[in-house]
Design a protein that fits this description.
Blueprint (H helix, E strand, L loop, with lengths): L5 H9 L5 E6 L5 E6 L2 E5 L1 H11 L4 E6 L3 E3 L7 H10 L12 H13 L5 E5 L14 H16 L3 E3 L4 E3 L2 E5 L8 H4 L5 E6 L4 H12 L10 H14 L5 H13 L7 H10 L5 H4 L2 H5 L1 H8 L4 H16 L12 E6 L6 H13 L6 E4 L9 H5 L13 H8 L4 E5 L6 H13 L1 E3 L5 E3 L4 E6 L4 E3 L5 E3 L7 H19 L3 H7 L3 E3 L5 H18 L5 E5 L1 H11 L6 H24 L4 E9 L5 E6 L1
Parallel strand pairs: 1-9, 1-10, 4-6, 6-9, 11-16, 11-19, 12-13, 13-16, 20-21
Antiparallel strand pairs: 2-3, 4-5, 7-8, 14-15, 17-18, 21-22
Helix pairs in contact: 4-5, 7-8, 7-9, 9-10, 13-14, 13-15, 18-20, 19-20, 21-23
């Protein structure tokens, strides 16, 4: 660091002008401080204040902490030494342990009026001294009334070689300014509120190299490699505290990681796991996955290839920058209903993690209300359900390595789409409780029916594409409508920009594909009856009738075929078996008779 942080410069500047200060903000973090020329370290706030205040001319710095009493920052002082410092600064000779309301109330006047060398009293955890700032108990009211009075009557006096003016300064360290009575902090000419900001990139950069020195091979690393790792350390810790960076370096040291593996240490710290499932995925399994995907998602070979390309990039890490935490992969699956978009998500999950139910699915039609985003990230403080957290943030915290499916994304309220910008751009989402949840190890999938219908100039909803269009025409029209929807209707073109060229348009279910889907569904249905003790086959004539009825309308895709199979095969078969009274046996479906109530002829063999 080339200069002190702004908050510290602000404090030093106003020391001769104000008798009390309130420090809030990033107070529980380590602070970057130049401990010697050219050497920056991350040290606790109390030690940072102690070093700076002594350098400014103060002789003693004393810390008061509720339940712990008085102490000296940064040193292991004996009880006698603490009492000596207390006595010469008007703080009494008894270091009473307790909440401290009565103790502080009894010593504030003596401390500020002390005529010895300048001293500072730091009241840490000041927010814990009171229950509610707007409803003070008598002891609380008495303490802060005394604080207000001594703040106003305190006077500076010259001290030190330069005879600069010094107060006996009181510094309150609180979580928020509103934790203290507003009549103490607002419009008080003798009190200054200073907010300590979270560390920015320059601050993190100043500490990245010193922290990397803690890793085992740091002395043997070439300067170029050290620079590269330091840059990754800075970029990947955006939003984290200096205490987090210190813990990451310690984690890397504990687990024997190299400087070049600092990104891995950051991932382990963020996600909370040591093993990386992406590295354990069998490459041979992915290599031969096209046939596996085609067996479950029929007629969408282009979609399978595109999706597998995304998966291969996620597994190999090619093109994945070590300086950002974006998701492993993102895809927008568009196309008609019932063509296999959700099925592809399940298939990819099964391929990666061995269990298709391991994917996390959100039906975005349930998030159409403006405040539905609270279900995803959790209610803000003060609202019902605040402690429960959000459905999405909780799920990712539990399963960071996952496929996350947002089904029918166009039905979500536009306000919710803003949350996806954070996920797609930074790979992070802040929950209602303030926790940061990371999506760097997840695959994010969106599905949508956008582009199948459009609104014409008269406001009427009309069909935009049909099964008579070629797949090339379908893709062009659907993408054009998706672009129009996000850019003009929602005014959020940046979402599509984050997805890039990973908009995958599914084709309609064509007759040949529908025939294969029907064959698979019939085989699966008849096979399932074996577990119940029945061996059932179907004649060619019955199959021809079934095909004629099930494939007459393909507008609803494979889901529509499944509905027809239930209506013309599953339901009448269940009825026929039930009516026979048989509990097992071998049967042939010789004929299917469609009608208002479809029936079939079942012949025992």
């Amino acid at each position: 660091m080339t200069s002190k942080p702004r908050w510290l410069r602000d404090l030093v500047r106003f020391l001769p002008l104000k008798s009390q200060f309130v420090l809030t903000g990033n107070i529980r973090d380590l602070q970057a401080y130049e401990t010697s020329p050219g050497a920056t370290a991350a040290i606790p706030l109390s030690l940072c204040l102690d070093m700076e205040l002594r350098a400014s001319g103060y002789n003693d710095v004393i810390v008061f902490t509720p339940l712990l009493g008085f102490s000296l920052p940064g040193v292991s002082s004996s009880a006698d030494e603490v009492l000596t410092v207390m006595a010469r600064n008007g703080l009494g000779s008894d270091n009473t342990v307790g909440m401290g309301l009565d103790v502080l109330n009894g010593v504030l006047s003596n401390f500020t009026a002390s005529t010895g060398d300048p001293a500072v009293l730091i009241v840490d955890f000041a927010s814990r001294l009171i229950n509610r700032a707007d409803a003070l108990a008598p002891a609380e009211h008495m303490l802060f009334t005394k604080a207000q009075i001594v703040c106003q009557v305190a006077s500076a006096r010259p001290a030190g070689p330069t005879r600069r003016p010094f107060y006996n300064t009181i510094i309150w360290i609180a979580d928020r300014e509103t934790d203290l009575p507003d009549w103490l902090t607002v419009d008080n000419p003798k009190l200054r509120h200073i907010s300590i900001a979270a560390p920015d990139s320059l601050t993190r950069k100043s500490l990245s190299r010193p922290l990397l020195r803690a890793l085992s091979d740091s002395r043997d690393v070439a300067p170029e490699e050290l620079n590269k790792s330091a840059e990754a350390f800075v970029n990947l810790t955006d939003g984290l505290l200096l205490a987090d960076m210190n813990s990451i370096a310690q984690l890397g040291r504990n687990e024997g990681l190299k400087v070049s593996e600092i990104s891995d240490a950051i991932r382990r710290y963020k996600v909370g796991v040591t093993d990386d499932p992406w590295r354990r995925i069998d490459h041979a399994k992915i290599l031969g996955a096209e046939q596996f995907v085609a067996s479950r998602v029929k007629g969408q070979e282009h979609a399978a290839v595109h999706m597998l390309d995304i998966i291969k990039r996620a597994v190999t890490g090619i093109g994945r920058s070590s300086t950002n935490g974006r998701p492993r992969g993102v895809a927008f699956l568009a196309g008609p209903t019932g063509v296999g978009k959700t099925e592809l998500a399940k298939t990819i999950t099964s391929l990666l993690f061995g269990d298709e139910s391991a994917y996390i699915r959100f039906d975005m039609s349930e998030f159409s209300a403006e405040h539905a985003d609270q279900r995803l990230i959790g209610a803000p403080p003060g609202y019902v359900g605040y402690d429960a957290g959000g459905e999405l943030t909780n799920a990712i915290r539990e399963k960071p390595f996952s496929v996350v499916l947002f089904d029918e994304i166009e039905k979500a309220h536009p306000k919710i789409l803003d949350k996806f910008l954070q996920i797609l751009d930074d790979g992070v989402l802040t929950s209602g409780r303030g926790d940061r949840v990371y999506f760097s190890e997840a695959i994010i999938l969106f599905t949508s029916n956008l582009g199948i219908y459009r609104t014409d100039s008269s406001g009427v909803r009309v069909q935009n594409v049909s099964s008579t269009d070629s797949h090339k025409v379908v893709t062009e029209k659907v993408r054009e409508e998706i672009d129009r929807h996000f850019k003009l209707n929602l005014n959020r073109p940046e979402i599509l920009n984050r997805i890039g060229e990973n908009v995958i348009v599914f084709d309609f279910i064509r007759p040949a594909v529908a025939d294969a889907i029907l064959e698979g569904m019939v085989s699966s249905l008849l096979e399932s009856t074996r577990a119940l003790g029945f061996t059932i086959s179907i004649s060619n004539a019955a199959k021809a009738t079934l095909k004629e009825k099930c494939l007459v309308d393909l507008s609803n895709g494979g889901r529509g075929v499944r509905n027809m199979v239930e209506a013309y095969l599953a339901n009448p078969l269940s009825r026929a078996i039930f009516d026979t009274g048989a509990v097992d046996g071998t049967f042939l479906i010789s004929e299917i008779s469609p009608g208002s109530v479809t029936s079939l002829t079942l012949v025992r063999q």
